[in-house]
UniProtKB/TrEMBL annotation:
Keyword entries, A-Z: Methyltransferase, S-adenosyl-L-methionine, Transferase, Ubiquinone, Ubiquinone biosynthesis
Lineage: Bacteria, Pseudomonadati, Pseudomonadota, Gammaproteobacteria, Thiohalospirales
Pathway participation: Cofactor biosynthesis; ubiquinone biosynthesis
Binding site residues for S-adenosyl-L-methionine: 38, 57, 78, 122
Descriptive protein name: Ubiquinone biosynthesis O-methyltransferase
InterPro entries: Methyltransf_11 (IPR013216), SAM-dependent_MTases_sf (IPR029063), UbiG_MeTrfase (IPR010233)
Job of this protein: O-methyltransferase that catalyzes the 2 O-methylation steps in the ubiquinone biosynthetic pathway.
Family membership: Belongs to the methyltransferase superfamily. UbiG/COQ3 family.
GO biological process: methylation
Keyword Phosphoprotein: no
Length: 234
């Protein structure tokens, strides 16, 4: 497996929490909360039923299983060995069929170029040393005319306040050290890398959290968390 685009500290951090991935009251609680929004965002734009999809950086398989339940044939891949083990274990418990692979995005792109109708890479780019390499791999994986979905965190004072000080220190929604502000990615940076890989932007949508209602919602504010849809040109 190509490990040149992996941070051992990040892998160890997520491997340590892997056994609690499916606990909605644990560290992955925010992922459980936003998963229905992520799923609807993708399904509305790609019509998952009958499509071949890949979840790049699938972790314990939350989104991968959800896409499979929408009728997609799903590959879930992650560089974290413990996360993939948990995902495979949960597959046996849930009966939701997902093909989980312990591999790197760059390796899967080399093995299956133009192999997928839908590529999702959610909450992953800000955890690797070279996000542009993952974006290029996603572009190679998707079929011409297919859709690629990214979600990540913007880099600005507001995102530092909300995503790090707020989420990790004040509200304690995430363990301290979950995110590194220097690795946050602006929409312009994401778009530049995506366009360089042959992708065309179709949508940018913000993901916001209301601490009073404790609810997440989609909207036009992309200052902190945001999702993006790209199409690979025919």
């Amino acid at each position: 497996m190509d490990t040149t685009n992996a941070d051992p500290t990040e892998l160890a951090k997520f491997d340590e929490m892997a056994s609690r991935w499916w606990d909605p009251n644990g560290e992955c609680g925010p992922l459980h909360a936003i998963n229905p929004l992520r799923l609807e965002y993708i399904d509305e734009r790609a019509d998952l039923a009958g499509k071949r999809a890949v979840d790049v950086g699938c972790g314990g398989g939350l989104l991968a299983e959800a896409m499979a339940l929408r009728g997609a044939k799903v590959v879930g891949m992650d560089m974290g060995e413990a996360a993939i083990k948990v995902a495979r274990l949960h597959r046996h418990e849930s009966g939701v069929e997902v093909d989980y692979r312990h591999t790197a995005a760059e390796d899967l792109a080399a093995e299956e170029p133009e192999g997928f109708d839908v590529v999702a890479c959610m909450e992953m780019l800000e955890h690797v040393p070279h996000p542009e390499s993952v974006i290029a791999a996603c572009a190679r994986m998707v079929k011409p005319g297919g859709r690629v979905f990214f979600s990540t965190i913007n880099r600005n004072p507001k995102s530092y306040l909300f995503a790090i000080l707020g989420a990790e220190y004040l509200l304690k929604m995430l363990p301290r050290g979950t995110h590194d502000y220097q690795r946050f990615i602006t929409p312009a940076e994401l778009d530049g890398w995506a366009r360089g890989a042959g992708l065309v932007a179709e949508d940018f949508t913000g993901l916001s959290y209301n601490p009073l209602s404790k609810q997440y919602s989609l909207g036009r504010d992309i200052d902190v968390n945001y999702m993006a849809t790209y199409r690979r040109e025919e």
